[in-house]
Automatic annotation (TrEMBL), chains A, B:
Belongs to the TrpB family. GO terms for molecular function: L-serine hydro-lyase (adding indole, L-tryptophan-forming) activity; pyridoxal phosphate binding; tryptophan synthase activity. Its cofactor is pyridoxal 5'-phosphate. The modification N6-(pyridoxal phosphate)lysine is found at residue 112. Pathway: Amino-acid biosynthesis; L-tryptophan biosynthesis; L-tryptophan from chorismate: step 5/5. Residues 78-414 form the Tryptophan synthase beta chain-like PALP domain. It catalyses: (1S,2R)-1-C-(indol-3-yl)glycerol 3-phosphate + L-serine = D-glyceraldehyde 3-phosphate + L-tryptophan + H2O. The beta subunit is responsible for the synthesis of L-tryptophan from indole and L-serine. This is Tryptophan synthase beta chain. It holds the Pfam family PALP. PROSITE patterns: TRP_SYNTHASE_BETA. Tetramer of two alpha and two beta chains.
């Protein structure tokens, strides 16, 4: 048996999967809090390219053709390998078969370019010259910089100031690809100046950076905004991950009993899981889908399913989703990409309707799983992805206990080459677990 | 056409290529300066496993079977992809076809594990419990840590103190794989203590670290020493790179007119080039082989072909090789892996006998080439590997000027994810070129 199950480029799926077309209950629309009505399309059109808005609304059928130029760019690193975790299996001495889809092979080192590329492409088609976005730890900003460089657009990236200062390497990657990186809060925007007036030493926040990127977008006709997770069209683009994996599992003569993804905004989970939910819906398949979140930010497992804002500053439309409250401030865990109060509305609804389960693990358990993984499989995972590894190990050990063979697939959404400072702290015993912050969640949700 | 030419694991070559079997003139033996005679095998046997010594002496025929356990470990990341640099070709607007073999997919991020794995494996076969080695920037130490973890041995890695302090991430990677990392000079060995007595604030040097690792090895019966480049058995293990690439070029329906590798100690160049030199020797092929070195350390292009020590402290046997003199101290360029005064004796002899050419480029040209590469191909190269990229670009532009189509293959020996600080300095204009240091070379060689 081959350890790595590879697809040739000619075998790469030519479509994304639009799960909305198959959902028995249509998603609740985004709401404009000022009117109490669904957000007006013309308002959104000032922010997003029309093709992306159509995708956001679930139009175009179940299979959306990947445009030729996007497909051509995907070929730089896709199809991504599916790898049998043979060495981890041996360590666990489990009858389970563990596979992982490895998205760390992309230029940015994670799944994020899967959506950055089409988002920038559609904007280019519409004559847009400039993309404004925000980034926390830098994964998303790196992906947008790569995509804008590729299609000849400019990018302006508002990077949370504390990350800008602590993560100069990510900033250097963005600049290498021509991205203009501005620490947020900045003096470039009115809301940045207001934040600075209030606190000149502000560390910044993702919410604040979103506000700056949105203001920047609205201030220039040639500019549009891009978001790296949460939204329906982002989840759509990520389904290339799951679609490829289905073909690869077929090559391996196998099919997963369990599919696992970590969930922050929900896009990498959606990417691996939605095609398997389709198979569950349309065929006799009964694959168990597990969303994994940090105990420090347990949106699905401890949050509420309701309309809430996507950002701290409450500038976005309200989305129907699981949320810990838009003012919830998660502890400073090292899986920065999972520190989000809300959850993709599609993932939220599918979870609410019973199409998937959710589990939460603390960061010590996850770093321990990551250490087991790098010592066996040789790949250093991103701290976010380590949550999926932890859940896969739990399932593999359960299979061992029960003496049943299970086929487990998880999404290894990125590598951890830029997170080694976090690993150092873990190995030096400087990290703490951060269990479920019940009181803070209750307070944030006004319970 | 596929951009990435992949091999399945079942297509991976089952042998290394021992070029000594085909060389018309047999290599000159290592000399013991104390006797003026070839170094006694029993002295070397205290340092290296007997299988490795046999390989060092070129025994066993032209094709050495890769042991099953080594092959199994290679499968964690091998076969490595061969990639057509389509996007770089477009930028250069060249009729040349450019391919690169990408060794950055290994656990350590470079070609080094190709030899760390068999070296540790053979030592394990001989009941050795512990490996001592040295590392400069950390690539080699990382590879040895991964290999010893894999086979259940201990490793002790003497890391040049200035790197130990400046590159905590590499150190963390070694420790993650169970490596014991000691800054050199250390108080662990007599020669370390002597260096510290002379200069308590010593930054350390690779020569000093080699001396400490050798002393450590000789002081413990359960310990052997491993070296990451220069030696014949190291070059042998690296030929998996070239052998795979031949199969991949065949799949692409192509064959290289030019094969390029950067050269520090010479092992990654040997790995990609030796199988093509075989084809040149045994068939009508006329592939041009180009070794690329930094102008700051121009061993082949400006050095002398003579017997010299492998280390600054002059503890090793003398090897017949191109050298800048064992006391030559190269400028602090950011391609740390190319800062070596000597050159693989096999590469040296083949160059001397006309089987390959050599070129030198300065670090600004090479960083510029790396920037072009990451902007088109999406992979951030190690500064060492950028020398091969630069030479490939030169050849592609020459083909354009001449209006001829050439097929160019180079070895992209590693990624630059741990070298971003160097890239930052480059983009901020803080690096200098370091041209050929003629006067220093003359002085070092006693001319």
């Amino acid at each position: 048996m081959e350890k790595k199950i590879l697809l040739s480029e000619s075998e790469m799926p030519r479509h994304w999967y639009n799960i909305i077309a198959h959902m028995p209950n249509q998603p609740a629309p985004p709401m404009d809090p000022s009117t109490g009505q669904p957000a007006a399309p013309e308002k959104l059109a000032r922010i997003f390219a029309p093709q992306l808005l159509e995708q956001e609304m679930g139009q175009g059928g179940a299979y959306i053709e990947i445009p030729e130029e996007v497909f051509d760019t995907y070929r730089i690193w896709r199809p991504a390998p599916l790898i049998r975790a043979t060495e981890l299996e041996k360590l666990l001495d489990t009858p389970a078969k563990i596979y992982y889809k490895y998205e760390g092979v992309s230029p940015a080192g994670s799944h994020k370019p899967n959506t950055a590329i089409p988002q920038v492409y559609y904007n280019k088609l519409n004559g847009i010259k400039r993309i404004a976005t925000e980034t926390g730890a830098g994964q998303w900003g790196t992906s947008i910089a790569f995509a804008t460089q590729r299609f000849g657009l400019e990018s302006i990236i508002y990077m949370v100031k504390v990350s800008y200062e602590q993560k100069p390497y990510r900033k250097a990657m963005m600049e290498m690809w021509g991205g203009k990186v501005i620490p947020s809060p900045s003096t470039t925007t009115a809301c940045g100046r207001a934040m600075l007036a209030e606190d000149p030493d502000s560390n910044g926040s993702l919410g604040g950076a979103i506000s700056e990127a949105l203001e920047d977008t609205l201030s220039r006709e040639d500019t549009r905004y891009c978001l790296g997770s949460v939204l329906n069209h982002v989840a759509l683009h990520q389904t290339i991950v799951g679609e490829e994996s289905i073909k690869q599992m077929e090559k391996a003569g196998d099919y997963p009993d369990i599919v696992i993804g970590c969930a922050g905004g929900g896009s990498n989970l959606a990417g691996i899981a939605f095609p398997y939910i389709r198979e569950n819906m349309l065929s006799a398949r009964k694959t168990e889908i597990i969303a994994v979140e940090p105990t420090a930010c347990p949106t699905l497992t401890k949050g509420t399913y309701t309309y809430d804002f996507g950002d701290v500053a409450q500038l976005t439309p309200q989305l129907k989703m699981y949320t810990l409250g838009s003012k919830f401030m998660p502890a400073g865990i090292h899986a920065g990409g999972l520190r989000y109060h809300g959850m993709s509305p599609l993932v939220s609804q599918l979870y609410h309707e019973g199409y998937m389960k959710a589990e939460a693990y603390n960061q010590l358990e996850c770093f321990e799983a990551a250490a087991m993984f790098v010592r066996t499989e040789g790949i250093l995972p991103a701290p976010e992805s380590s949550h999926a590894i932890k859940a896969a190990i739990v399932q593999a050990l359960k299979a061992k206990e029960e003496g049943t063979s299970k086929t487990i697939l998880f999404n290894l959404s990125g590598h951890g080459h830029f997170d080694i400072a976090s690993y150092e702290k873990y190995f030096q015993g400087e990290l703490i677990a951060y269990e479920h912050p019940e009181a803070e969640i209750a307070k944030s949700l006004g319970r």
